[in-house]
Design goal:
This protein has 605 residues and is α+β, with helices and mostly antiparallel strands. It contains 14 helices and 25 strands. Strand 2 and strand 3 form a beta hairpin.
Length: 605
């Protein structure tokens, strides 16, 4: 049943003051946007404000997330910040900071030299504010000190935070080793040829360890026996010179023109018309573009493949359904990004990766015989998706819709929860699983006759897959690959979470992937597979009945964007997805109960 659109309440109108309203509508990114008066502006503006807000919503249905999923009225997204600067300057951020004293400060283990900067603000229709905060100590960033403040009408509801800052201890901020020694430590830890190691400055590192003064070193180089780009962040103890943590900046998939694509046949795509022809640029989706890397090495990535060329065409017909035309694979990628953009906008009210209405850059034909795709974010202005061509024998180019959805979701995760990837207990697997979940949802949303929705990731990249059961990951039985984990072990995935380790994120994602499947579909064996129901669960609970993937997708998106933080563990993911289920459907709802059973079915209790 589609919910009727109601006018915003007075509480929400007040909450939105000072935010450039980014509404959850089905219009183009600019539609429904209104510059709202700042806090303290003359009250005579209130009627105009109410009228502006009403006009922005009148006649439009809410984001499709809440149409037909039976979500609780008031839980819908009313507004969201479009940049960290806007979030930090908002009245909602000021209200959140005002709450961080007394008992709340004790819960956060706040000390006098701590300071807080808002990075993201989301406001529900009932006035609930979710303010994502970063912490600094004596002006130094605290890595792992992030949290989310949840409040309504000026009263604190709860705080989401990781386990890293549950101490009042803070380090001396005078380093005992110099940057040169830290640089040498980082260089020696890299498996490959080092091109450069840049000192990004001192930080307080608090992921999996007590807050420790550390150097943040950004290393770039060529990995040994691996075509993937080599950009790693190393945190080196500024007191002892010990390596504390390694974070990989490259997150992989492990995998109105006419586009004649490789995978999806002939598809409609949006391009940009110029005086001399057409460009593979999508004006309807923030100017997202698709370029040809011309088989440049994956390691030539630091500035987004500056030698890549934008695809252009004279007649607005792109490709020939075969690899002999380089635009064929480009069409698949361009189409996949467009579908992903539409999914997040129409279903979750999110306008692009950073919710700012700006499109993303996609680069195809990366490397030679490169069997991978990746999302890259250098922490600054260089952000894009890259797709390899496969090996020409077993694998096609990695430009399937679920792969595009997977990689774009990495970008959204980086813009919201910033879930850690390698070497952070449990978190990398959750990060990968979230990308698999939304890659799956995007594939179902596309509703393509050439690639029907399923719970397999990357099945279309195989050149030969007559049974349709080969895939990079099988979400309901990921351990079928002989290496993935689907049952959560006692103590969690605390070790071996490095790249290609026994608990690599691409392997531990099997836990949350199975949760998503069970809660969506129940303990049901999909057609074409010969498993028993008992093989789909870890606790013999074979009577789970799913509540539908749209509802579980709504819960997962809410948990990711409102509750998850950079070091979220699987037990915390259970807690916060259940909180999201309670927000949307009620704590006594079938959705909440089913999701709880699904978590127990993977041994997360």
């Amino acid at each position: 049943m589609q919910l009727k659109t109601a006018l915003l309440s007075t509480a929400v109108v007040a909450a939105l003051a000072g935010l450039c309203l980014h509404t959850a509508s089905t219009d183009t990114p600019a539609a429904g946007a209104a510059a709202l008066p700042a806090a303290g502006q003359a009250t005579s503006a209130a009627p105009a404000l109410a009228a502006t807000t009403a006009a922005a919503h009148a006649g439009h249905r809410l984001s499709g997330l809440f149409a037909g999923t039976g979500a609780r009225p008031g839980s819908e997204l009313a507004a969201a910040s479009e940049s960290p600067a806007q979030a930090d300057a908002s009245p909602a951020a000021n209200r959140a900071r005002a709450l961080l004293h007394g008992a709340t400060g004790q819960e956060l283990h706040r000390v006098a030299a701590d300071a807080f900067v808002a990075r993201d603000v989301m406001i529900d229709r009932d006035g609930t504010e979710h303010v994502r905060m970063e912490r600094t100590y004596q002006g130094l960033p605290v890595v792992g000190g992030d949290f989310v403040v949840h409040s309504q009408n000026g009263e604190l509801k709860s705080i989401s935070q990781g386990d890293n800052m549950r101490t009042f201890g803070r380090p001396d901020i005078q380093p005992k080793i110099d940057a040169a020694q830290a640089r040498a430590t980082a260089a020696s830890a890299f498996d490959g040829a080092v091109a450069a190691v840049d000192n990004a400055g001192l930080v307080v590192f608090a992921q999996g360890t007590a807050p420790t003064l550390a150097y943040q070193m950004e290393l770039r180089g060529d990995r040994r026996n691996d075509q993937a780009p080599g950009h790693l962040t190393y945190y080196v103890d500024a007191g002892t010179g010990a390596l504390l943590h390694t974070e990989d900046r490259v997150q992989t998939a492990a995998a109105n023109g006419t586009g004649k694509s490789l995978i999806y046949g002939n598809v409609g795509i949006v391009t940009d018309s110029t005086a001399s022809g057409f460009r593979l640029v999508d004006p309807n989706r923030g100017g997202g573009s698709t370029l040809d890397a011309n088989n440049a090495s994956p390691n030539n990535y630091t500035t987004g493949y500056p030698g890549a060329t934008l695809f252009t065409d004279a007649d607005n017909v792109w490709g020939n359904n075969a690899m002999s035309d380089r635009a064929s694979a480009a069409t698949d990628a361009h189409y996949g990004v467009a579908v992903t953009w539409d999914y997040f906008k129409n279903v979750h009210g999110r306008s692009g990766i950073f919710n700012d209405g700006k499109g993303v850059r996609s680069v195809v034909h990366v490397g030679t015989n490169y069997v991978n795709a990746f999302w890259y974010d250098n922490g600054g202005t260089v952000k894009y998706m890259a797709y390899g061509d496969g090996d020409g024998s077993t694998y096609n180019p990695l430009v399937a819709i679920d792969v595009a959805g997977h990689e774009m979701t990495h970008g959204i995760t980086g813009a919201t929860a910033r879930l850690g990837y390698y070497n952070v207990k449990d978190t990398g697997g959750i990060n990968e699983g979230i990308s698999d979940i939304f890659g799956t949802l995007v594939e179902f949303y596309a509703n393509s006759a050439s690639d029907a929705g399923d719970y397999l990731i990357g099945e279309k990249i195989y050149k030969s897959n007559p049974s349709g059961t080969n895939a990079l990951r099988v979400m309901f039985k990921q351990d079928a690959d002989g290496a993935s984990k689907v049952c959560y072990p006692a103590g969690g995935f605390a070790t071996g979470t490095q790249a290609r380790g026994p608990n690599d994120p691409h392997l531990t994602s099997g836990v949350i992937n199975r949760v998503f499947y069970l809660a969506s579909e129940g303990a049901v064996v999909p057609s074409g597979f010969n498993y028993t129901k008992a093989q789909l669960v870890c606790n013999n609970d074979t009577t789970i009945a799913g509540v539908g993937r749209d509802k579980i997708g709504a819960i997962m998106y809410r948990a990711l964007t409102r509750y998850f933080v950079s070091s979220t563990t699987y037990p915390q993911a259970r807690t916060w997805t259940l909180q999201a289920a309670a927000d949307l459907y009620g704590a006594s709802s079938p959705e909440h109960a089913t999701l709880a059973r699904a978590w127990s079915a993977v041994s997360v209790n």
